[in-house]
Amino acid sequence: ITKPAEDMIIITTEKNVQNGFDIYGENKNIIPFTVWIDKLEIKNLRPEKDPPFLKVIPAKTRKLLLKLARKDRYKGTRISYGAKNFIGDYNKIHNDETVYFLPFQHGKKYFLSQGYNGSFSHQNHNAIDFNMDEGTPIHASRGGIVFEIKEDSKIGGKEKDMYHKHSNFIKIYHRDGSYAVYSHLKYNGAVVNVGEAVSSGQLIGYSGDTGWSSGPHLHFDVNVLDSDFKKK
């Protein structure tokens, strides 16, 4: 198991030489993250730029996100804000012509049990489920960098509230800013490590029945920062 990628973004506020504040973001991940400073409420402070306050923090980097100068040196200041973290670089554009392999051994066939906006899950979520026995080899649909793994869970079931957080998974980041998630893997089911570069079709793990699940299967989805987010 690795620490959740989103928890490896650290936001801090420091006073600056203008008697204002600097907001910094530190990315301890091995992939870039986009940070959005929102719900900014300030008194007697002036941001250096107009919103949206979006910045990309490269992997293993600490970066200034927003600088606020004090307006009146004789008056007090106040600042509050929220920070949202998104996997990847929002400036990148997904290559829609990329061919994704099926996430299992070439030549094998598995029943597609659930597609987009399914009846059991996947509501408002573009993901697909393949029915397969526990221990079925899972292969990378596309090459990339493994950036997060969870494989410590032994339990699964149909009750969402009880089992949702117990799914084992592997997450792989692609060069165009998208990333793939392979979920419900078996206990200790990963055969790759965080930081490892994998190629399309490479064996990465084994299927299971962990987390919120109605039976043994593989859940697969690809995530991209959408155009609405980029317009903020």
Structure description:
It is a single chain. This protein has 232 residues and is mainly beta. It has two helices and 18 strands. The protein has helices at residues 160-163, 227-230; strands at residues 9-15, 21-27, 33-43, 45-47, 53-57, 61-70, 78-87, 112-114, 128-131, 137-139, 144-150, 156-157, 168-173, 179-190, 197-198, 203-207, 211-212, 217-223. The strands form four sheets. Strands 8, 9, 10, 11, 13, 14, 15, 16 and 18 form a nine-stranded antiparallel sheet that branches. A four-stranded antiparallel sheet has the order 1-2-6-4, with no helix packed on it. A three-stranded antiparallel sheet has the order 5-3-7, with no helix packed on it. The protein is elongated, with a radius of gyration of 21 Å.
Brief summary of the model shown:
The chain is mostly beta strands and 232 residues long. 3% of the residues lie in helices and 46% in strands. The protein has helices spanning 160-163, 227-230, and strands spanning 9-15, 21-27, 33-43, 45-47, 53-57, 61-70, 78-87, 112-114, 128-131, 137-139, 144-150, 156-157, 168-173, 179-190, 197-198, 203-207, 211-212, 217-223.
List keywords for this structure.
2 helices; single chain; 46% strand; 3% helix; mainly beta; 9-stranded antiparallel sheet
SS elements, strand count: 18
Termini separation: 34 Å
Radius of gyration in whole Å, from Cα?
21 Å
State the helix count: 2
SSE sequence, one letter per element? EEEEEEEEEEEEHEEEEEEH
